[in-house]
Amino acid sequence: MLVNYIIEFIVSMVATIAFAIVFSAPRSELLYCGLSGAIGWIFYSLINTILLAPTFGNVIGSFALTFFSRALASKRKNPVTVYLISGIFPLVPGAGIYYTSYYLIMNDMVSFSQAGLSTIKTAGAIVMGIILGMAFPQSFFNTAFAPSGRK
Fold first, then answer.
1. Is residue 123, in this structure, part of any structural domain at all?
2. Cα gap 4→133, rounded to integer Å
3. pLDDT tens figures, 93-117
4. Angstrom distances, CA of residue 39 to CA of 67, 103, 125
5. Could you tell me if residue 9 is inside a domain?
6. What is this structure's pTM?
């Protein structure tokens, strides 16, 4: 079981780094971008496995990566979007969007409705996690994660 989580962590980190390269993140920040994506994915995966609650897993995963991204942004003196946009990549419901479109084109309205509702729930859960992570005041991050010499 632990081996699976280690593999998932590594794969989500590599995928996030690849997306960060496409997103033109600064080269010096690629590892941190990868960590943000891997942290979000592991929180999602743990909640989904333990509680069998993928929507709640997306809320917690996106909250964790938002919190981590804000801490990194404060520590590394970069915009939070560098870490947040690339870090959200593993959680985005790409397959759900694809199948929703596919079922619409194939005129399978029952499957379209099911896939569409699931995709909307996932996207909404990701947004809720980001909102919760952004609810912390910036002063908290500036104080707690300030570079050495600046508190």
1. yes
2. 27
3. 999 999 999 999 999 999 999 999 9
4. 10, 32, 16
5. yes
6. 0.91
